[in-house]
Every structure is written in structure tokens, then in C-alpha cells.
Amino acid sequence: MRVLLSGYYGFGNLGDEALLEVIVTRVRARFAGADIEVLSNDPAGTALLGVEATPRWEWRAIREAIGRADVVVSGGGGLLQNATSMRSLLYYAAILREAIRAKKKTMVFAQSIGPLDLWGRFAVRRFCSGLDRATVRDERSRALLSVLLAGTPVERTADPVFLYDAPAGDVDLSTEGLESGGPPYAIVSVRKVSNFREGVRTIARAVDRLAERHGVRVAFLPLGGASDAEVSTDVIRACESAPVLLPECPLAKAAAIVRRARFVIGMRLHALILAARYTVPFLAIPYDPKVAALCDDLQYPLEPLWVPGRPRLSETAADGLVDRLVAQHDEIAAHLAERMAAVRVAAERNFDVLGELLGE
Questions:
Q1: C-alpha to C-alpha distance for 20 and 289, rounded to whole angstroms
Q2: Which domains does the chain have, with CATH numbers?
Q3: What is the pLDDT of residues 321-335, one digit of tens each?
Q4: pTM value?
């Protein structure tokens, strides 16, 4: 069996690289002897996973890869949306269209669908007609894709990164001032959005509250590379306390850092998924519907710290939210632990559906 993976791979975004690593690991475990090919922005780096990697911008190479494949898998991630750009949506939809025309088995895999405007909905309906199977990460996505692709079975599952296991053993963070045995620390993961500056003061106040009222060290972890480091620096400059900016690091170390954290404040979806995976209480910043959907699916008990495009919390309300995060740590951790069993089963279901498609 030969599987072709299409996603946002090879760009250095740790969330997407975590998706790829989990998918590759599970496909190999589930389908012995399967050949895996990945469309990547960095074929040499992606090939280190022991897969074949094809440049994602070379359409002749993409068509040849589709021709070699038994199944073309689109995902995981938030690929079928045009909030980023219509060009991005058309790129991923065109790969599925090419595979459907080539009579290959096709699957949308563990995606969040949307946001989609009128033209985006038209593109998905037109390009993806004939898709064999689909799994999505939340109920909103299931409802939307079921309407757009009425002939395709669509199942709600969960993000495969809920299955990620960080390597055993501790991680040395002494050079970052987060040594074992010291005060607890919180991790903050932010990313660029168009109106990010509106939330800087709220995020900085939450950081200061953790540090000054609760004695929690705070470190910013840039999961999306240099652009995340840049906006992290903007927040750090607005803080009265002294949070640190961690250097970019490999996935295994980033996951270990989150696993050891006492709290997480997160915009990046996979920062929050890793927090939930390791039962670390968090405050979410839902910059995208997929983040809000995660909180809904987890039945998360704390409201968001800030929602871009909406009025900011008052200082009193923001302080109270941070205080609740600290005071309710054990209860929230227990709630996440209780949710994880079902969520991990749902994440494994993505691979069950792939097996059904392939006649396992």
C-alpha cells in the first residue's frame, strides 16, 4: 500500500510537524510495509522521518506522486478554509480533485473545515465532489462538510496529536531558568493575527498576575518559529514581570516543556492540545474557530482569556480568571484526564477509517 500525505508540512510549524509525525508513526504501526510519501515545503527535512518527500509546489511531481499512490490523504490540520487565502484553499482542493479524477481513493483526514465564505464553499463542493471518506476534528466542521459534500461519509473524530507521546525522561531547562525543583512555570504560546495588538495588554496582565501574585515563572514558547517569537517579544515588553523567551526547539523538547508546565496560556491549537494531552490546565485565546471548537469538545470549564475581535476582559475579570486557573488547578487537571480517554479513542478512529477505506 502506498499513502500520499498532503498538508502544511515542511514549514517548521511544530503543530503540523507533530501531526505528520503521529500520522507517519500510526500508519506504519497499523499498515505493515506501507510506503508513505509526503508533499513538503522542505523535502530533505521531511525525509528524516524515513518517508519519501516530494516538493509541494511542483505540479508535475505532485501528479506523478498521485499516480503512484493507492490513497491520497488530505490532512490533518485546517486546510480546507479560505480565511488564510483563497489560493491556499484552491491548492489543497486541487490535489484532491486531481486524485479523484485519477480514480484514487481519497480521504480528508482529521481536518478542521472553514472558515469558508461563499466562494470557498463553492470551491470545496466543486473540487471535492467524489471524495471517499472524511474525518474532522469538531462538530462544527462535521456539520459544514456534511452539507457541502452530501455524498461523502463524514465522521467527527479528534486531532491525532492527542496520541503523541513525548520521549521518556526529563528535559534539561536549566539554561532557560526553568530547572527541575524550582518554582512552577507557565508556558505561553502566541501567534500573529491581524488585531493582535488589541490583546497584548490582556495577555501581559495575565502573565504578570501569574508571576507577581502566584509566584509562577513564565516562559514564551514560539511553536511557529520567528513570527511567533516576534509577537511573544511584543507581549514580553508590555509585562512588568520578567518572562523569558525560549529558543525554537524540536517537537520532542517542546512537548516535554509543556508536559512539565503547571499552566499554559495558548493561541496555537497544538499548544492547547498538548496541554490537554498532559492534563495541564490552560487559558485559551481562540483566534480561530478551531480553538473554540477544541474548548467546546473538551467541555473546558474556563472562559477564554481574550477573543480577537471582541472587547477585552476588564482588568478585574482578567485577574479573576487567572486566579481561578490557579485555584482550580487540580479540578481542571482531573477534568482533562477524564476527557482524555474518549478523546484518544476518537483520535485513533481516524486510522480506523483509513483502514476501512483501504479494505483492512
A1: 22
A2: 2-156 (3.40.50.2000), 174-340 (3.40.50.2000)
A3: 999 999 999 999 999
A4: 0.94
